[in-house]
Amino acid sequence: GAVVSQHPSRVICKSGTSVKIECRSLDFQATTMFWYRQFPKQSLMLMATSNEGSKATYEQGVEKDKFLINHASLTLSTLTVTSAHPEDSSFYICSARPPSNNEQFFGPGTRLTVL
Amino acid sequence: AQKVTQAQTEISVVEKEDVTLDCVYETRDTTYYLFWYKQPPSGELVFLIRRNSFDEQNEISGRYSWNFQKSTSSFNFTITASQVVDSAVYFCALSEARMGGSARQLTFGSGTQLTVLP
Fold it and tell me: What pLDDT score does B98 carry?
């Protein structure tokens, strides 16, 4: 089956530092990956759509200079939270979609805590 | 714009009871997909079902069943004979279908926390 991994699964960092989260499709190529954010006891909110070889499309209210997305290959997208602040603490989940498939396969999520 | 409403924030039942989780959606699209996901405390989303808007047949999978009513824009989820392991947050989600049938990004409901007591 389609497997999506995320690394790291958990990260704690100091305020002002940058954190990179990787999302990999392990057994399929993903032309499109999605990044979601989930605050405690809340729903998943789409942050951006990442397309291989092109710029990501950000949802309204999401700062593209703060949340850098790179989709350099068909199996890897990265989300970098720059100059992290405590309010960026959240659960970040990626999903990947194969080219000719209407399924989205979710990663296990990354829990970010900014001190 | 798309919207998914899960009016039930929290539900508690005793083991072996049946429980129905409600989901109401809004979309202007004629072709769309509806999903249910389970999120246990570990956080990982577990896919339960995908339903195409053209397929209104109800579906049963073991103790799980889904009732899709296009007339009322609802896609409710029933767990029969609930078990403690069913305790989780359940999300209903909607995705429009682009040309060619592939889905776009998901719009999630706010989720329903289900607690099944022993």
Answer: 63
B108 and A100 within 8 Å at the Cβ level: the answer is no
On whether the CB atoms of residues B4 and B107 are closer than 8 A, the answer is: yes
Alpha helix (H) residue ranges in A1-115: none
- Is residue A21 within 8 Å of residue A13, measured between CB atoms? no
B64 in A contact zone (CB under 8 Å): no
Residues of chain B whose pLDDT is less than 70? 98-103
- CB neighbourhood size of B21 (10 A): 22
Among chain B residues, the shortest Cα distance to A109 is held by: B44
For chain A, residues with pLDDT lower than 50 are: none
A39 touching chain B per CB within 8 A: no
Identify all chain A residues contacting B102, using CB atoms and an 8 Å cutoff: 97, 100-102
Give me the residue from A91, A102, A109 closest to B102, CB to CB: A102
Tell me the helices (H) and strands (E) count for chain A, helix number first.
0, 11
Name the residue among A43, A46, A111 with its Cβ closest to that of B110. Answer: A43
Helix (H) or strand (E) holding B77: strand B74-79
What's the sign of the alpha-carbon dihedral B51, B54, B59, B65?
A: positive
Q: State the DSSP code for B42.
A: T
- Of A49, A47, A80, the C-alpha closest to A65 is A80
Which residue matches tokens 């999401």?
Answer: A62
- My answer on whether omega of the bond before A8 falls inside 30° of 0, hence cis, is yes
- pLDDT value at residue B59: 86
